[in-house]
Amino acid sequence: MTNSYDTSTSSEGQYQPGSNELVLLNKLELELLDQLTEVLLTELVEGQVLSAADLCEWHRRWLGNVYDWAGDYRSVNMGKGDFQFATASLIPNLMKSFEQKFLVPMACYVGMSDDDLIESLATVHIEFILVHPFREGNGRLSRLLAVVMALQAGRSVLDFSWLDQHKDEYFLAVQAGLDNAEPMKAVFRQVLRDTEKISG
To answer: What's the rounded Cα separation, in Å, for the pair 23 and 15?
Structure first.
Protein backbone atom coordinates (compact mmCIF):
# COMPACT_ATOMS: atom_id res chain seq x y z
CA MET A 1 0.00 0.00 0.00
CA THR A 2 1.32 3.44 -0.93
CA ASN A 3 1.80 5.98 1.86
CA SER A 4 0.25 9.22 0.60
CA TYR A 5 2.22 11.16 3.25
CA ASP A 6 5.65 9.93 2.18
CA THR A 7 7.75 12.84 0.89
CA SER A 8 10.99 10.91 0.41
CA THR A 9 10.75 11.01 -3.39
CA SER A 10 9.52 14.60 -3.67
CA SER A 11 11.51 17.82 -3.39
CA GLU A 12 10.10 18.23 0.14
CA GLY A 13 11.93 15.10 1.23
CA GLN A 14 15.36 15.97 -0.18
CA TYR A 15 18.21 17.06 2.09
CA GLN A 16 21.45 18.96 1.64
CA PRO A 17 24.39 16.64 0.86
CA GLY A 18 26.36 15.90 4.01
CA SER A 19 23.64 17.06 6.44
CA ASN A 20 22.61 13.58 7.68
CA GLU A 21 19.04 14.51 6.71
CA LEU A 22 19.01 17.49 9.08
CA VAL A 23 18.97 20.32 6.50
CA LEU A 24 16.40 20.46 3.70
CA LEU A 25 17.76 20.83 0.19
CA ASN A 26 17.84 24.50 -0.71
CA LYS A 27 18.23 24.87 -4.46
CA LEU A 28 18.71 28.63 -4.17
CA GLU A 29 21.75 28.12 -1.93
CA LEU A 30 23.21 25.64 -4.41
CA GLU A 31 22.58 27.94 -7.38
CA LEU A 32 24.08 30.91 -5.54
CA LEU A 33 27.15 28.86 -4.62
CA ASP A 34 27.61 27.82 -8.25
CA GLN A 35 27.36 31.48 -9.29
CA LEU A 36 29.86 32.57 -6.63
CA THR A 37 32.27 29.81 -7.67
CA GLU A 38 32.13 30.94 -11.31
CA VAL A 39 32.77 34.56 -10.32
CA LEU A 40 35.64 33.67 -7.99
CA LEU A 41 37.27 31.54 -10.67
CA THR A 42 37.34 34.56 -12.98
CA GLU A 43 38.63 36.86 -10.21
CA LEU A 44 41.35 34.51 -8.97
CA VAL A 45 44.87 35.78 -9.57
CA GLU A 46 47.91 33.50 -9.41
CA GLY A 47 49.77 34.09 -6.17
CA GLN A 48 46.84 35.96 -4.64
CA VAL A 49 46.96 36.10 -0.84
CA LEU A 50 43.59 35.38 0.74
CA SER A 51 42.45 36.58 4.15
CA ALA A 52 39.81 35.59 6.69
CA ALA A 53 37.95 38.72 5.55
CA ASP A 54 37.85 37.24 2.02
CA LEU A 55 36.15 34.12 3.38
CA CYS A 56 33.60 36.30 5.19
CA GLU A 57 33.01 38.17 1.93
CA TRP A 58 32.56 34.90 0.01
CA HIS A 59 30.03 33.79 2.62
CA ARG A 60 28.21 37.15 2.42
CA ARG A 61 28.14 37.09 -1.39
CA TRP A 62 26.87 33.52 -1.37
CA LEU A 63 24.22 33.63 1.38
CA GLY A 64 23.54 37.34 1.85
CA ASN A 65 20.16 37.08 0.11
CA VAL A 66 19.21 34.12 2.31
CA TYR A 67 20.48 35.05 5.80
CA ASP A 68 20.89 38.49 7.40
CA TRP A 69 23.95 37.24 9.28
CA ALA A 70 25.76 35.90 6.20
CA GLY A 71 29.43 36.81 6.32
CA ASP A 72 29.46 37.24 10.09
CA TYR A 73 31.11 34.76 12.41
CA ARG A 74 28.60 32.74 14.39
CA SER A 75 27.70 33.83 17.91
CA VAL A 76 26.27 30.50 19.05
CA ASN A 77 28.06 27.29 20.01
CA MET A 78 27.44 24.40 17.64
CA GLY A 79 28.10 20.71 17.36
CA LYS A 80 27.10 17.62 15.46
CA GLY A 81 25.85 14.92 17.78
CA ASP A 82 28.33 14.69 20.64
CA PHE A 83 31.04 16.43 18.60
CA GLN A 84 31.47 20.14 19.41
CA PHE A 85 32.99 22.71 17.07
CA ALA A 86 35.06 25.64 18.37
CA THR A 87 33.47 27.85 21.01
CA ALA A 88 31.87 30.86 19.31
CA SER A 89 33.73 33.44 21.40
CA LEU A 90 37.07 32.05 20.18
CA ILE A 91 36.29 32.26 16.46
CA PRO A 92 37.72 35.74 15.69
CA ASN A 93 41.14 34.80 17.10
CA LEU A 94 41.01 31.31 15.61
CA MET A 95 40.33 32.80 12.18
CA LYS A 96 43.22 35.26 12.54
CA SER A 97 45.45 32.29 13.26
CA PHE A 98 43.87 30.35 10.36
CA GLU A 99 44.68 33.24 8.04
CA GLN A 100 48.35 33.40 9.03
CA LYS A 101 48.92 29.66 9.20
CA PHE A 102 46.95 28.54 6.14
CA LEU A 103 45.67 31.33 3.88
CA VAL A 104 48.82 33.43 3.50
CA PRO A 105 51.00 30.44 2.45
CA MET A 106 48.48 29.54 -0.32
CA ALA A 107 50.10 32.17 -2.52
CA CYS A 108 53.11 29.83 -2.84
CA TYR A 109 51.22 26.72 -4.00
CA VAL A 110 52.33 26.88 -7.65
CA GLY A 111 54.28 23.74 -8.55
CA MET A 112 53.37 21.94 -5.33
CA SER A 113 53.63 18.13 -5.47
CA ASP A 114 50.48 16.00 -5.15
CA ASP A 115 51.52 14.78 -1.69
CA ASP A 116 52.14 18.32 -0.43
CA LEU A 117 48.88 19.55 -1.93
CA ILE A 118 46.94 16.67 -0.36
CA GLU A 119 48.47 17.42 3.02
CA SER A 120 47.62 21.12 2.68
CA LEU A 121 44.07 20.44 1.52
CA ALA A 122 43.50 18.02 4.40
CA THR A 123 44.93 20.21 7.16
CA VAL A 124 43.20 23.39 5.95
CA HIS A 125 39.90 21.56 5.57
CA ILE A 126 40.11 20.01 9.03
CA GLU A 127 41.00 23.30 10.68
CA PHE A 128 38.23 25.24 8.92
CA ILE A 129 35.59 22.63 9.75
CA LEU A 130 36.71 22.38 13.39
CA VAL A 131 36.56 26.17 13.78
CA HIS A 132 33.20 26.15 11.94
CA PRO A 133 33.19 29.94 11.74
CA PHE A 134 29.71 30.40 10.28
CA ARG A 135 26.25 29.34 11.40
CA GLU A 136 25.55 27.69 8.04
CA GLY A 137 27.52 26.70 4.94
CA ASN A 138 30.91 25.77 6.43
CA GLY A 139 31.20 22.48 4.55
CA ARG A 140 30.39 23.98 1.17
CA LEU A 141 32.59 27.02 1.79
CA SER A 142 35.48 24.74 2.79
CA ARG A 143 35.05 22.89 -0.51
CA LEU A 144 35.19 26.21 -2.36
CA LEU A 145 38.37 27.07 -0.47
CA ALA A 146 39.83 23.68 -1.46
CA VAL A 147 38.99 24.41 -5.11
CA VAL A 148 40.81 27.75 -4.87
CA MET A 149 43.79 26.02 -3.23
CA ALA A 150 43.92 23.44 -6.04
CA LEU A 151 43.74 26.17 -8.67
CA GLN A 152 46.52 28.11 -6.91
CA ALA A 153 48.59 24.93 -7.22
CA GLY A 154 47.88 24.73 -10.95
CA ARG A 155 45.34 21.90 -10.72
CA SER A 156 41.78 21.61 -12.02
CA VAL A 157 38.53 22.39 -10.21
CA LEU A 158 38.12 19.57 -7.70
CA ASP A 159 35.45 16.88 -8.09
CA PHE A 160 33.78 16.24 -4.71
CA SER A 161 31.26 13.60 -5.82
CA TRP A 162 33.09 10.97 -3.74
CA LEU A 163 32.35 12.97 -0.56
CA ASP A 164 28.62 12.98 -1.30
CA GLN A 165 28.70 9.18 -1.55
CA HIS A 166 30.84 8.64 1.58
CA LYS A 167 29.45 11.12 4.12
CA ASP A 168 30.02 8.93 7.17
CA GLU A 169 33.63 8.25 6.23
CA TYR A 170 34.15 11.96 5.63
CA PHE A 171 32.74 12.98 9.01
CA LEU A 172 34.89 10.36 10.76
CA ALA A 173 37.90 11.93 9.02
CA VAL A 174 36.86 15.35 10.36
CA GLN A 175 36.59 13.97 13.89
CA ALA A 176 39.90 12.13 13.60
CA GLY A 177 41.47 15.38 12.44
CA LEU A 178 41.76 16.59 16.02
CA ASP A 179 44.73 14.23 16.39
CA ASN A 180 45.35 12.62 13.02
CA ALA A 181 45.15 14.12 9.52
CA GLU A 182 45.72 10.78 7.75
CA PRO A 183 42.01 9.92 7.25
CA MET A 184 41.36 13.36 5.72
CA LYS A 185 44.46 12.99 3.54
CA ALA A 186 42.93 9.75 2.25
CA VAL A 187 39.71 11.65 1.47
CA PHE A 188 41.57 14.33 -0.51
CA ARG A 189 43.78 11.76 -2.21
CA GLN A 190 40.57 10.20 -3.56
CA VAL A 191 39.15 13.63 -4.52
CA LEU A 192 42.35 14.48 -6.40
CA ARG A 193 42.38 11.07 -8.10
CA ASP A 194 38.76 11.51 -9.24
CA THR A 195 39.50 15.04 -10.44
CA GLU A 196 42.47 13.85 -12.51
CA LYS A 197 40.32 11.12 -14.12
CA ILE A 198 37.75 13.69 -15.20
CA SER A 199 40.20 16.35 -16.37
CA GLY A 200 42.18 13.84 -18.31
So the answer is: 6
